């Protein structure tokens, strides 16, 4: 077995993992970064989810390096895509003109920008990327992880990585059980957290639905896929709270739980510049075509795109039949989730009611070339909820809920390592819950949520921090995950420089101030200006 070593090992190459690696590399450290899928970038790329961001993202509320990622995406379009002159001059270019975000784009563009951000460090030899590799074992000495065993996704090759600090940036917190770290899953009990929306009894297997996203366009011809084997099951499937079958235009409104009917109009010919991508004003999911559109053809010169391209991450592909964490049949559930998505596509092509009274849109074409998945879907499932460390600080609903906090705003932490903002947005769950959607105040990320209670050199760098099932719904989105990863990477580098530990940094007023100063110099915002939540 091959053994390699570095100052830090970052396991998982999603947004948190990339941000963690960049923070360590900027600090002069050597890094091994691993990723299970073919693309770095996680939810932004291999999971094919356009960024979910807050109202003020163009002005403040994200780290400088996350802003560099966003700027790089826009620059890539201007440098390489046949934009119209009007689109090229659009300062806040939204290539897809989707309603979910002010920057909806094709996943491959983010891959290119991320690779460019990492390229100098690969060239210098200080960064080694192992891809596609995933963790399969860990060696532990007391409260320290001494090595992690990594296996090639497609073969028998294994590598042992040794590092002073190990960062778990996997989508499901895979390292936590391998290292014997204490963690929680699912819904905590109200008696433990005090959260207004929590149940009386803990439900560790009650987790948010996963989704397998896919991209489609609409062109001439019949592009109907083969009927999936499980189509009849999914065609008849109806959650008790849904108001209709899952494969329909009707479903609960996340914010009110009222049963509403979405519209669907391929290539509506709308003006991209007039799209208001601000979820404070409008969740944007009325017309599913424009909701998560990632290429608006009218942003490009005539003929460049036959059609808009839209990303299907809609309620009808939320998989509710079982969790995919800490269960023996996780692979079976993930396979069924992919079947659900293919069934949704087949329904759209053959049976979906049209506004003109007809049924089916055979012109819908699966764009697997856009998402990179072998079966035409996204390479990876969209995992909304991870294992979460038992941390020094656990963020709870009452720390950020507008209903609880009112005009006081979210709790301010003395050990803040960043900021974030998103409504608590819980999708229907494997335990039978409907949406839980709670207005939030702009919040901070406490360092204590990044430090395990016991482990000394294992740090979370993704969705596996000290949140609850409920608050994970606000902390799980793209810019917050990036900020978490960046803070974790910077913490590991700081501890190596000062020959100290994460616990000591948080316990020492002087060390904490020095670490926060380093974050600030690197462009990490620790506090919000005077803004109100939504």
Task: Explain what this protein looks like in three dimensions.
Helix content is 27%, strand content 18%. Strands 1, 2, 3, 4, 5, 6 and 21 form a 7-stranded mixed sheet that branches. The relative contact order is 0.19. It contains 15 helices and 21 strands. The longest helix has 21 residues, at 330-350. With 534 residues, the protein is α+β, with helices and mostly antiparallel strands. The mean pLDDT is 98. The protein has helices at residues 15-26, 64-80, 85-88, 107-124, 175-178, 190-193, 231-236, 288-291, 330-350, 368-371, 402-405, 472-475, 478-498, 502-507, 509-521, and strands at 2-11, 31-34, 127-130, 133-141, 144-152, 158-168, 183-184, 210-211, 214-218, 250-252, 259-261, 293-295, 309-312, 318-319, 364-366, 388-389, 416-420, 424-426, 436-438, 443-446, 458-460. It is globular, with a radius of gyration of 22 Å. The termini are far apart. Its EC number is 1.-.-.-. Pfam families: FAD_oxidored. Keywords: Oxidoreductase. One of its GO terms (molecular function) is oxidoreductase activity.
Intertermini distance: 52 Å
Helix content percent band: 25-40%
Rounded to the nearest angstrom, the radius of gyration is: 22 Å
Figure out the total of helices: 15
Main sheet summary: 7 strands, mixed
- Let me know the number of strands: 21
What spatial form do the alpha-carbon principal axes imply?
A: globular
Briefly note the structural class of the backbone.
alpha+beta
Mean pLDDT across every amino acid position: 98
Poorly predicted spans: none
Proportion of strand residues: 15-25%
